[in-house]
Write a structure and sequence with these properties.
Largest sheet: 5 strands, parallel
CATH class of the largest domain: Alpha Beta
Order of helices and strands: EHEHEHEHEHHHHHHEEH
Number of helices: 11
CATH topology of the largest domain: Rossmann fold
Shape: globular
Number of domains: 2
CATH architecture of the largest domain: 3-Layer(aba) Sandwich
Radius of gyration: 21 Å
Oligomer: single chain
């Protein structure tokens, strides 16, 4: 793909973005998201030029990579470099890929300000840039031509703000005494505003069964037969339930499998996976037989809390969902 520089206009000011894409369509979609986000396009190139350009590129405010096919070692080297740059320079990176490539792409992205998108639309792309640029990108949302897209951006902004508030409350609690629901080592704040449950005897929760958690998941999915499932979207809880059942069954859970279990679009699920990892509820582990895949699992404190929750809820009686 030949290098492309944007014309003047909406691209000539604001945060900058450098794009690498393996298809013309992907590059154009990424460039459009920069335009709508009110940013400036520093360049658009093919993957074959990516590593050389990154090694000599002056600082940009974000790097966008769009992958639609598996390029094997070429893509692996690029993603490894981007992970390194993201951590070293605290430079935002947005990687877009397909569901088929999700596991091998996720395996190369380790830490730092990296956002992984799966088959995103324009709203998803603009939202990712908004977060990468610290909110500056919302200045350009009026350029979205679809009223539906504008409405979705507003709803997503509310969701992002809600997640940010939750993470802020959790991080502000880290300076205080740690409190694990079972062992006293998990620094997660009790965010219940007024309700206090009865004593639960968390020191020795009953050993749960995988069927308990699978049953809860089946009950939650049953609602979709009678109502629009989007009104019940709760990806964090669905993922915790699925991972707890998998832990008890001694099964591994890949990124793609967890996205399916979340019952929300993959890009939304990926955002929640990242948040839950940051909160200490989930952890990632390399597949010892496949370097291009990782597994997601509950941390030990999170598993203890899930066991304690189930035991306490059973003592209260009624349906658990």
């Amino acid at each position: 793909m030949a290098e492309y520089f944007a014309e003047t206009g909406s691209f000539d000011s604001g945060p900058s973005a450098l794009i690498f894409a393996d298809t013309e369509a992907g590059g154009l979609a990424a460039a459009e998201s920069v335009r709508v986000a009110g940013g400036r396009l520093a360049g658009r190139l093919g993957l074959e030029d990516a590593v050389d350009r990154l090694n000599r590129q002056a600082a940009v405010d974000a790097v966008i990579v769009d992958l639609s096919v598996d390029h094997g070692p070429v893509a692996d080297r690029l993603l490894d470099l981007l992970s390194y740059i993201a951590v070293r320079d605290n430079r935002p990176v947005v990687v877009t890929t397909t569901f088929a490539l999700l596991d091998c792409v996720a395996a190369r992205l380790y830490a730092g300000p990296i956002t992984l998108l799966c088959e995103p639309d324009l709203v998803d792309r603009v939202s990712a840039l908004a977060l990468a640029w610290g909110g500056e990108a919302w200045l350009g949302v009026s350029d979205v031509t679809s009223d539906a897209d504008n409405a979705r951006l507003r709803r997503l902004a509310e969701e992002v703000n809600r997640i940010a508030r939750t993470l802020s409350k959790l991080s502000s609690h880290q300076a205080s005494e740690p409190r694990d629901p079972v062992q006293g080592s998990w620094q997660v704040e009790d965010v219940r505003p007024v309700f206090e449950a009865e004593p639960t005897g968390l020191d020795q929760p009953a050993l749960p069964c995988a069927s308990d958690f699978r049953g809860i998941l089946r009950q939650r999915r049953l609602r979709a037969r009678f109502f629009d499932p989007s009104i019940f979207a709760d990806p964090a809880w669905d993922m915790l339930l699925d991972l707890m059942a998998a832990r008890l069954e001694d099964e591994e859970v890949s990124v793609t499998s967890l996205c399916i279990a979340s019952a929300v679009p993959s890009t939304t699920a990926l955002r929640w996976i990242r948040n839950l990892i940051d909160m200490g509820l989930l952890c990632r582990r390399a597949d010892p037989t496949d370097g291009r895949r990782i597994y997601i699992s509950l941390t030990d404190p999170a598993a203890r809390a899930m066991s304690a929750y189930l035991a306490a809820a059973k003592r209260q009686g009624g349906m658990i969902i």
